[in-house]
Design goal:
Strand content: 5-15%
Distance between the termini: 27 Å
Number of strands: 9
Structural class: alpha/beta
Largest sheet: 5 strands, parallel
Radius of gyration: 20 Å
Number of helices: 11
Order of helices and strands: EHEHEHEHHHEHEHEHEHEH
Helix content: 25-40%
Length: 272
């Protein structure tokens, strides 16, 4: 058994586990996500075998007391990735951790299985589905993810954008699609988001601010037609579910042309 351990946020955990799950499938090894055994319990994987708190505690303390070896794919790992893979092959039971466990080809090979494990539970879908039912069935549904919080300092604040910058991006997108009725769904992690600024900027656009749990927001974004946001794994994973076109705002002064929207299979290989 490979016990997958990480300390990142929700969608970091999904991607990290997906890579190690795919590696395990290719090599005939079972995997268990320590994160989804007790936290972020929004998905089918949380109800599968071994995904419970007791297994999490066992793996955590077995590694801490050096009863289980650890394959470390972290940025400060003492050994190269090939050495870590050899550890995974050598030990029947082992903990694997670190953001740099990357097996892109295997991830794509087993992507449908990974998506199956991370299908949303019914209780996660209920409120977003009620909201979606209130929106017109035609037109284009644009999901905007506003990521602030830790982005104030991450990469020197490179992707920390103001409301005005997000509004500017949406305005340019709407200009590209003047022939369509666009519905704007705004999700994010900033409680001080100026909703009225968006409503003033787009008085003719139907705008909703769901304020759901991370699981509900992820599901809601996955049900949009297009996604826009600062580079993050949250929009990336949302796009993965239905292969949605995704525009990452690298330069808030640049216009989001249709050609600038990417797809998961390419974008997930650009995550640092």
């Amino acid at each position: 058994m490979i016990f997958v351990r990480d300390k990142g946020r929700l969608c970091n955990n999904i991607l990290q586990y997906g890579h190690l799950y795919a590696w395990g499938r290719e090599h005939g090894r079972s995997t268990m996500s320590m994160r989804f055994a007790y936290k972020y319990r929004y998905f089918r994987i949380c109800h599968t075998r071994y995904h419970n708190f007791l297994t999490y505690v066992f793996a955590k303390y077995a590694a801490k007391w050096h009863l289980l070896p650890v394959a470390d794919f972290g940025i400060d790992a003492p050994n190269d990735p090939e050495r870590q893979q050899q550890l995974l092959l050598t030990h029947r039971h082992i903990v694997a951790e670190g953001w740099y466990a990357r097996f892109y080809d295997l991830f794509l090979k087993y992507k449908s299985e990974i998506l199956g494990l991370f299908q949303f539970d019914s209780f996660v879908r209920e409120e977003p589905d009620r909201l979606l039912a209130t929106l017109p069935p035609t037109g284009l549904r644009l999901g905007l993810h506003i990521r602030r919080g830790d982005y104030r300092t991450w990469h020197g604040g490179r992707y920390y954008y103001t409301d005005e910058q997000y509004i500017g991006i949406v305005r340019q997108f709407l200009q590209l699609h003047q022939d369509l009725e666009v519905q704007l769904i705004v999700c994010g992690n900033d409680p001080e988001l100026d909703e009225q600024a968006f409503r003033r900027a787009f008085p003719q656009t139907r705008i909703v601010f769901p304020k759901g749990t991370p699981g509900e927001d992820l599901y809601l974004l996955s049900r949009c037609d297009r996604l826009i946001g600062a580079p993050s794994t949250f929009t990336l994973v949302a796009a993965m579910y239905h292969d949605l076109p995704l525009y990452w705002i690298e330069d808030p002064s640049a216009a989001p042309t249709d050609a600038a929207f990417g797809r998961f299979d390419q974008l997930f290989q650009q995550i640092k």
